[in-house]
Amino acid sequence: MEYLIGAILGALVVVIRNSIKDGARRERARRYDISDPGNQIRFVQDAQLYPRKPINAEAFRAVFKPVETYLSSKKAGYRLFAEVSMGSFVKTSKYEGTAGQQNRAYSSFGSKRVDFLIIDPLGNPALVIEYHGSGHYQGDAERRDAVKRTVLSRAGIALIEVHEDAPASQVVEAVARKLGGRHKRTGPW
């Protein structure tokens, strides 16, 4: 009988201990849940933040400055943006495929960024410029680039890939060529 009581008490202790641990785990998960806006504010308030240039000096010199100069003098109404999330200018169709397929597709590219986006005078995406500078080829850069190429091709948005040794005149010439032969609309919107 004492053995049975000891086994029951031992089991009860294990259940209580596991319950306490599970509660602590749930509380920790809740406290560090990045999807909770309250936590996001706390995380941001606890961090030291500072402004930084959105374009590194190399990309600014090789692409942004010459393309911005070209657009302002030759392509009225066209605008150049840097470090743009693909999810802000590419969307999936609600009419094709299942919602799950569309969600997986969007999740595959939505948070990826392009180096530069040119929009036309109506605000439509006209051209993406990817700069492959000295720090580009790190980790799985080739695979990330392949995803971007596929998305842009499927969305009908032109792409120029600029390598670090390309002269500014060549970059501007490529932009002029791509924008000169562009259609008025690039997507279903």
Describe this structure in words.
Residues 182-189 have low confidence and may be disordered. Strands 1-2-3-4 form a 4-stranded mixed beta sheet, with helices on both faces. It is built from 6 helices and 4 strands. The chain is an alpha+beta fold and 189 residues long. It has helices at residues 2-31, 37-46, 57-74, 99-109, 141-155, 168-180, and strands at residues 79-85, 113-119, 125-132, 158-163. The N and C termini lie far apart (77 Å). It is elongated and about 95 Å long.
Inertia-based shape:
elongated
Helix content: 40-55%
Order of helices and strands: HHHEHEEHEH
Structural class by helix and strand composition: alpha+beta
Largest sheet: 4 strands, mixed
Radius of gyration: 26 Å
**Strand segment count:** 4
Mean pLDDT: 87
- Approximately how much beta-strand content do the residues carry? 5-15%
Q: Order of strands side by side in the largest beta sheet?
A: 1-2-3-4
Number of helices: 6
Query: In whole angstroms, how far apart are the ends?
Result: 77 Å
The residue ranges in which pLDDT falls below 50 over 5 or more consecutive positions are 182-189
